[in-house]
Amino acid sequence: MEPAAPERTTSSARVRAVSATGTAERLEALVGEEPLEIRVRGRGQEPVSVAVTMRTPGCEEELAVGFLVSEGLLLPGEPLRVAFGDPARMAQPENEATVHLERPFDAAAVASRNFIASASCGICGKATLDGVAAQCDPLPPGPRVARSVILALPSAMRAAQKVFERTGGLHAAALFDVDGTLLALREDVGRHNAVDKLVGRMALAG
């Protein structure tokens, strides 16, 4: 079951729409955007702030884990738990996510990077061109996917974008199996956040 979107995912605003025949006021649904601080706490250590990203509220646990996996700071499937901010000091505790690890965390891995995560694109926080290149092994040969399946994916993805249907203003990332069955979809004002939410969802699922 997909997680329910929090109320802050969207908001309403009265706007004036302009057309060739005149203007009219109407109520418009807008995509929410709030900061999320992602922190890591190794065993016996104090939390280390890794990044602050602007994101659409919802699936914060997935986003924090997915971001760390994507940046190579976390291995998929390793034991962890995610805790949110203290409600006594934060109006929105979900805006601070701390990933607790069972192992020590190398804070130097964060200090050597320049994490400035915005909602625009996934390379904005890289300090050098070398940092843009993904450090990963080549993928082995995979299963063959039918042309008809590939052509059907955009429509299937669009049909599942519930928040986009209401607002028309955010990105999505989707995971399908080789037969074209939709396994999971995440939406966010930042396209790289949508991907990281999906990565985090799968990492948390093992």
**Arithmetic mean of pLDDT:** 87
**Secondary structure: number of strands:** 8
Helix run count: 5
Helix content: 10-25%
Shape: globular
Radius of gyration: 19 Å
Q: Write down the secondary-structure element order.
A: EEEEHEEHHHEEH
SS content category:
alpha+beta
| N-to-C span | 16 Å
- Largest β sheet strand count, sense and barrel closure: 4 strands, mixed
Strand fraction: 25-35%
- Low-confidence parts lasting 5 or more residues at pLDDT below 50? none
Biggest β-sheet: strands ordered side by side in the sheet: 4-3-6-5
Description:
This protein is α+β, with helices and mostly antiparallel strands. Helix content is 23%, strand content 29%. The protein has helices at residues 60-70, 108-111, 147-159, 162-167, 191-204; strands spanning 10-19, 22-31, 34-41, 48-55, 80-84, 96-101, 171-176, 182-188. It has a four-stranded mixed β-sheet with strand order 4-3-6-5, covered by helices on one side. Strands 1-2 form a two-stranded antiparallel sheet. The protein is globular, with a radius of gyration of 19 Å.
How are the secondary structure elements laid out?
Blueprint: E1 10-19, E2 22-31, E3 34-41, E4 48-55, H1 60-70, E5 80-84, E6 96-101, H2 108-111, H3 147-159, H4 162-167, E7 171-176, E8 182-188, H5 191-204
Parallel strand pairs: 3-6
Antiparallel strand pairs: 1-2, 3-4, 5-6, 7-8
Helix pairs in contact: 1-5
